[in-house]
Amino acid sequence: MRGIVRRRKPDHIFVYAGVFSVLYGFWLWAESGSRGALIVVLVGLLLADGGYRFRWTRRVLAQGFAGLLWTIRSVARASSGLVTARRRLAGGTDLRTILMMSSLRFERFCADLLEREGYKVTLTSPTGDAGVDVEFRAPSGALGLAQAKRWTHTPVGRPVVQQLFGEMTHEGAAMGYVITTSRFTREAVEWAAGKRIGLIDGEELELLATKYFGRIHLRTSEILPLPAASELRRYS
């Protein structure tokens, strides 16, 4: 009958090949993070659309160069989300989990990190520790002191680093660490330069946690009683 337009069936070979290329491109991106994987994804999209006589491609080209850029951006965002999801499935510990730790659990966590670094560690008494949370010794016997600051929005300033350095001098410690879930001010970093004090911020802490422990699962007794972000900085 006239007036009836028959839609052509898609060429399944192109569609299957395109879907396979897209999946392979995403897998390649998740494994290596190479931007070349995006080209594989785009080729796969073109192949899949070829099975439908390039209807989607013609529409994108009709919208102009801006439409093409939007498409590439969308693919890049999807790939980035896939990489993030894969890293979480691989067992990485994110900073949010670390921030949920109670004060005592966080100090033990920092002590465990130093132990994995090859030191022999001892947790100090919760009271009267003069700002020192962990004592550790190198294989050579050299003493070290560490301070753990589980802060969120407030950066660790120079006074905290100076306090630890003062305790190092008093105790005859050869080295020290300030470990925080937050970041350090520029003054703190500049003051610590040239001294045997290591500054570990939240980003590096997250990487070390993933390296040594994978994903950390907290028990109820290890979780911060006041988990609101506004309350977290009250604890150190």
Architecture blueprint of SSEs:
Elements: H1 12-32, H2 36-50, H3 55-62, H4 65-89, H5 95-99, H6 103-116, E1 120-123, E2 134-137, E3 143-149, H7 158-171, E4 175-180, H8 186-192, E5 197-200, H9 202-213, H10 229-232
Parallel strand pairs: 3-4, 4-5
Antiparallel strand pairs: 1-2, 2-3
Low-confidence stretches: 83-90, 226-236
The secondary structure category is alpha/beta
Main beta sheet strand tally, sense and closure: 5 strands, mixed
Number of helices: 10
Q: Give the SSE order as H and E letters.
A: HHHHHHEEEHEHEHH
Approximate helicity band:
40-55%
Query: Taking strands numbered 1, 2, ... along the chain, how are they ordered across the largest sheet?
Result: 1-2-3-4-5
Q: Would you tell me the overall average pLDDT?
A: 77
**Number of domain units:** 2
CATH topology of the largest domain: Trna Endonuclease, Chain: A, domain 1
Indicate the CATH architecture of the largest domain: 3-Layer(aba) Sandwich
Gyration radius, in Å: 27 Å
- SS strand fraction: 5-15%
In words, what does this structure look like?
The protein has a five-stranded mixed β-sheet, with helices on both faces. 53% of the residues lie in helices and 11% in strands. The longest helix is centred in the first third of the chain and has 25 residues, at 65-89. The chain is elongated, with a radius of gyration of 27 Å. The chain has two domains: 12-89, no CATH class; 95-232, Trna Endonuclease, Chain: A, domain 1. Strand 4, helix 8 (186-192) and strand 5 (197-200) form a beta-alpha-beta unit. The chain has 236 residues and is of the alpha/beta class. The protein has helices at residues 12-32, 36-50, 55-62, 65-89, 95-99, 103-116, 158-171, 186-192, 202-213, 229-232, and strands spanning 120-123, 134-137, 143-149, 175-180, 197-200.
